[in-house]
Structures are given as structure tokens and as C-alpha cells.
Design goal:
Blueprint lengths: L5 E4 L3 H13 L3 E7 L6 H5 L2 E6 L10 H11 L3 E3 L9 H9 L3 E2 L4 H8 L1 H10 L15 H11 L3 E5 L8 E4 L5 H16 L4 E5 L5 E9 L5 E8 L3 E2 L2 E2 L1 E4 L6 H17 L4 E9 L5 E7 L6 H8 L3 H9 L16 E8 L1 E2 L5 E2 L2 E2 L2 E3 L6 E5 L6 E2 L6 E9 L2 H14 L1 E3 L5 H8 L2 H4 L11 H17 L1 E4 L7 E10 L2 E10 L6 H16 L2 E3 L4 E6 L6 E2 L4 E7 L2 E6 L4 E4 L8 E2 L4 E6 L3
Parallel strand pairs: 1-2, 1-4, 2-3, 4-5, 25-27
Antiparallel strand pairs: 6-7, 6-8, 9-10, 9-14, 11-12, 13-16, 14-15, 16-23, 17-18, 19-22, 20-24, 21-23, 26-27, 28-35, 29-31, 29-34, 30-33, 31-32, 33-35
Helix pairs in contact: 4-5, 12-13, 13-15
């Protein structure tokens, strides 16, 4: 196959920009696609060519495989790279790409299909001698089946979308009473994210480490193991920090994990870059969980310790070239850590926080890498994932890498939406992280949220003197550079609304949080879409009762009431769009 001359990246944001960089190094033209919401996004600006594929919602743009293929043909590309997410693990799309005469930079559609069905994958892995987590190898069709499995293999259980991945479509069941709600939630998420409501059940392993294996496979029979990554630190089953090597893996265990990963890839007939995700228990047992048939968000740490550009290898493999490496050529040097810098509010349970980035400055220096798809003035849209950037560091050992990461977190300046910078700084100084433990139960704790806020405040004060308005007056910030006695300062001036500002607006700006905290008003904490409504007007509810479930930035968030009482003035319905602070209902005094 001749070398590619032009490749379309069917994705957006930082992964699109990252792939473009490798394409340029290979002398290959880079083609971007964008939605209306991404018209001026960085990935669309830095590509050689960029084509509109539809409105902002992903269902109308980045998930429109037919439009993407039509665009690729119009652009005259040789191949399509899907990145991760969206259509990256969609076997019908991969087949359609190949049928259109375009090369698919990824695994064979049959391998995607096999590993996309978690039940079929579990059956195939068991047949290949790969250890799997105890549980069902067939789809579970009813709540009664869930309860029966709980009686057979014990609680807790985890219900998973059979076509799932990326932490979506997973619900834990601790007892029979919670089976129905978890079953319905997993089915709903499976249908929403993967157009498939089939689910299966596994035994929930108590406090395992999430350890995954990176593999590379060419079309000539070579499969390489490129080391493991520890992705234990998560919230809502989604990763926040990744590192390699894992602090819990020694040389003997690494060899065993590598053998399992290579066997799994061979059993799937795999080609391209892929990841075997597994769980490592405290007794040293390692179980296959699933295979991600794509490049991973956290591929960066593997690149830094191996010196191998995984995207370049994907492209060369897709061109039909054999891997130039042998297993003995793969050497892990030093330690790498990645922190996902998302637009999320830790103090509100990691709620997505879309908004405009008003200031953006990346850290730099030896062993520092930032993969980002934004710059100052860009907007983090509520339509997509809340990731702003990935901050990755590399050094000779874990402790020096940890200290380097702390330095970089303090240097990273992002203003506008709340971010995870302070959270990561707090986490990386926790004794459990310093010692290489899994930090189970800490990530979503109130204690860490408080420390994260303290670190956020510290970062914002390091180079900025703040002038505040009065506590009871609405204020607006802008940053001004000033010089006093020959010394430079950045001063954040909070400008109060003048006395003639509309009184109604000032009242609204002050009443949002207080209204939900001190009265019976229940408001949406974020912009999003109502997935389900759990109450009706006239229902009597207890404090903490779920009123509705709102999806924002690919996350489901339960909106609860702080007061017991009777539901009234219910103002939302399933499928409705809501904005941050919008009234959902009013909880009146109970009878």
C-alpha cells in the first residue's frame, strides 16, 4: 500500500490536534471536521483543511458516519483516523469506511464488534484462557435475573452496558432492593450512549486497582506489550489520573499481565493500537475487564516511558507496514503521570462546568507535555466532554515525576470555568497517593473537595492581588496589569454593578444558591438535558429524594431535594433542556 497523502480525523478537541501533529511529521495532509459549535475551535483552525459536518449536538455531527464518509470522499483523503470516543469503536462505521474505498486507521471491524459486546468478549477471553471477572457471560434480561446472580455469586454486583465503555452504563447493586433502579439506569445509559440497552452482570470487586495493558499489533502476526498503566483514581467510573508503571506491579506481575494482554489481542484477531483493561485485586489476582479497540486518552504516558509514538504506529500499521520493533526492544524508562484537566466543579460533586476560557497559559520545562485543544477565548461547550487539556509529566522515578506534576499544576493558568487543577494538586499531596496506594474512597470525599478549593484559591492568589466588592453586591472580574514602585502586578478587579443596574438582575444573581438552600425551590445545578423525572406533582418526598436525572457533558447527575415535603410546580419533563439555575420544582410543607 502506498503511503498516505491525506488523512481525515473524525474527532475534535485535543485528540484531533494531537493526531494532526503526527500527520505533519509524516508529511501527510491533515483534514478536520467540525460542528457549528466548533466553527472556530482550535482543531478546525490548525488543520490543513476543515469541513463542516452539522449542528452542535454530536448526534447531528460527530456521530453522523454517513456525513463524515461523504466529507472524506469530497476531501479526497486516503484514510480516516477516528481518535477516541464518538465513532472510534463503531464497527458498522469502520466497515462503511472500508467499503467506501478509504483506509480505516484502527482495528478490523470484526475485532471491534467482538470486543464491543462485553458478553461475547468475556466468552472469547474465557475460551482463550484469559482470566475474567466472575459473573454472567450472557446478557441479563430482567431484574429477577440480577437478583438471582446476586444470590449465586454474592453482592455487591455491577451491572454494565454490554456495548459500553469509557465508564458509561455502569451501576452498582449492593442488595436486592437496589437491583431495579440500577438495572433501569444501566439500560438507559446503554441505549443513550451506545444505542443498545443490553446489559450483563459481574461480581463487584472490592477496592481493586484498575490496571490496563497497552498493546500494538500489526498485520503480520506481531503483537507487542508496551507496559501497563494504573488508572485507579476515578470518579463515576471515569479516569482522572493515569500513570505508568503502576506502583502496584512488579516485574513478575508485569510479565504475567503482558502475556494476558498479548493472548487477548491474538484471540480477538487484533491489529492497531489497543488496550486490555483489567482489575488487580489485593491478593494479586488479575482479571480481564474489557478491551478498548482504539487509542486511549492516557496513551501519552506510555509514549513518554517507551519513546514510541502510538499514533504514528497506528498509521504505519494501517499502511500495511510491519512493526519495526520486537518485544525485547520495548524498554520502560522512568515514570510518567497524566492529570486530566476538566471543566468541572469539585465542590459540586464534579459537575460539568461549561463556559468561556478567559485566560490560558500552559506550563513548560523538562519532561512536560500538554495535549490541549483550546486557547484563551475558546468555550468549553456543554455539548461535549468537559476536558480542557491533559497535563503529562515524565521523570526518572515516581517521586520526582509527582513533584514535577505539582510544579506544573501551580504554573497552569486557566480562568473562566472551574477546573480540576486544585483537585489534582490536593490529591497528589495526599499520603495515599504519595505512597502509591489506590486512594479508594478519597476522590469524591468532602475532605478532598475542601482541600481542592484551598489549592485553587492558592493558585489564584499566587500572581494576582484581588480587590473585592462588597459581599452583598454582584461583581464582574477583569484582569489589569499595573506597576507599583517598579514592581509589576496582575490585579483582578471585581467591578460592582452601578446603582442604576436593573434591580431584577441583581436580585437574580444573588438568589440562585440561596433559593435552593433555604427555601423549597429545587433548581438545576447545570445546563443539560432531563433524562428522567422521578416525581409528579403532589408526591410526598423525603430529604435527599431524587427529583430528576440531568445529563450534562456525557455525565448523569441526580438532582435531589434538600427538604422533605410535597412536590409542586413541577416544571420539567423527560427530554427537556434545562439551564443552570432553572427551576425544576418547589417542595412545599408536607401534610
Amino acid at each position: 500500500m502506498p503511503p498516505f497523502t491525506k488523512v481525515l480525523v473524525a474527532n475534535r478537541g485535543e485528540i484531533a490536534v494531537r493526531i494532526f501533529r503526527t500527520l505533519r511529521e509524516l508529511g501527510i495532509g491533515a483534514v478536520a471536521v467540525y460542528s457549528d459549535a466548533d466553527r472556530v475551535a482550535l482543531h478546525a483552525r490548525v488543520a490543513d483543511e476543515a469541513f463542516r459536518i452539522g449542528p452542535g449536538p454530536a448526534d447531528d455531527s460527530y456521530l453522523r458516519g454517513d456525513v463524515i464518509i461523504e466529507t472524506a470522499l469530497r476531501a479526497g483523503v486516503c484514510a480516516i483516523h477516528p481518535g477516541y470516543g464518538f465513532l472510534a469503536e463503531n464497527a458498522p462505521f469502520a466497515r462503511a469506511v472500508e467499503e467506501a474505498g478509504i483506509t480505516w486507521i484502527g482495528p478490523p471491524p470484526a475485532a471491534i464488534e467482538l470486543m464491543g459486546s462485553k458478553t461475547e468478549a468475556r466468552r472469547a477471553m474465557r475460551a482463550a484462557g484469559v482470566p475474567i471477572i466472575p459473573g454472567a457471560t450472557e446478557p441479563v434480561r430482567s431484574v429477577e435475573e440480577v437478583v438471582a446472580l446476586g444470590e449465586e455469586i454474592g453482592y455487591p454486583l455491577i451491572i454494565k452496558a454490554a456495548a459500553g465503555g469509557g465508564g458509561k452504563g455502569m451501576e452498582m447493586v449492593t442488595d436486592p432492593a437496589g437491583a431495579a433502579q440500577a438495572f433501569e439506569a444501566a439500560q438507559r445509559q446503554g441505549l443513550k450512549y451506545f444505542a443498545n440497552d443490553t446489559v450483563y452482570v459481574e461480581r463487584y470487586l472490592e477496592q481493586p486497582r484498575h490496571v490496563e495493558a497497552q498493546i500494538l499489533a500489526d498485520g503480520h502476526g506481531t503483537v507487542l506489550f508496551l507496559g501497563e498503566r494504573d488508572c485507579t483514581i476515578q470518579r463515576r467510573h471515569q479516569k482522572l489520573v493515569e500513570e505508568t508503571p503502576s506502583p502496584a506491579v512488579d516485574d513478575a506481575l508485569r510479565t504475567r499481565i503482558g502475556e494476558i494482554a498479548v493472548n487477548a489481542a491474538r484471540a480477538a484477531g487484533y491489529r492497531s493500537a489497543g488496550t486490555i483493561e483489567g482489575l488487580l485485586t489485593r491478593d494479586g489476582s488479575y482479571y480481564f475487564m474489557e478491551m478498548n479497540t482504539r487509542i486511549q486518552v492516557e496513551h501519552t504516558v506510555t509514549e513518554l516511558v517507551t519513546g514510541i509514538d502510538l499514533v504514528r504506529e497506528q498509521i504505519l500499521i494501517a499502511q500495511g507496514e510491519p512493526l519495526s520493533l520486537r518485544q525485547e526492544d520495548v524498554v520502560l524508562r522512568g515514570h510518567a503521570i497524566e492529570c486530566r484537566i476538566n471543566a468541572e466543579d469539585v465542590g459540586k460533586g464534579f459537575l460539568p462546568a461549561p463556559g468561556v476560557i478567559t485566560a490560558y497559559e500552559e506550563p513548560s520545562g523538562p519532561g512536560v507535555r500538554v495535549d490541549s485543544g483550546v486557547c484563551a477565548g475558546d468555550e468549553i461547550s456543554g455539548l461535549y466532554d468537559p476536558m480542557i487539556a491533559k497535563l503529562i509529566v515524565h521523570d526518572t522515578n515516581r517521586e520526582t515525576a509527582r513533584r514535577r506534576m505539582l510544579r506544573c499544576l501551580a504554573e497552569f493558568r486557566i480562568e473562566g470555568p472551574p477546573t480540576l487543577l486544585g483537585f489534582h494538586a490536593a490529591l497528589l499531596t495526599e499520603p495515599c497517593f504519595v505512597e502509591g496506594d489506590g486512594c479508594h474512597g478519597l476522590v469524591e470525599s468532602q475532605e478532598l473537595a475542601q482541600r481542592a478549593q484551598e489549592m485553587t484559591d492558592t493558585f489564584s492568589h499566587q500572581a494576582t492581588r484581588i480587590v473585592k466588592g462588597s459581599d452583598d453586591t454582584a461583581t464582574r472580574a477583569r484582569v489589569v496589569a499595573v506597576e507599583v514602585d517598579g514592581r509589576a502586578f496582575d490585579v483582578r478587579v471585581h467591578v460592582t454593578d452601578p446603582p442604576w443596574a436593573p434591580l431584577g438582575r441583581r436580585r437574580r444573581e444573588r438568589s440562585g444558591a440561596a433559593g435552593s438552600a433555604t427555601s423549597g425551590a429545587v433548581v438545576s445545578p447545570m445546563q443539560g438535558t432531563v433524562l428522567s423525572v422521578r416525581v409528579a406533582d403532589g408526591d410526598v418526598v423525603a430529604a435527599g429524594h431524587v427529583i430528576c436525572v440531568v445529563e450534562a457533558m456525557k455525565m448523569e447527575n441526580e438532582v435531589t431535594t434538600q427538604h422533605a415535603g410535597t412536590v409542586g410546580a413541577l416544571a420539567v419533563a423527560q427530554g427537556a433542556s434545562v439551564t443552570s439555575g432553572q427551576l425544576i420544582c418547589v417542595i412545599g410543607e408536607g401534610e
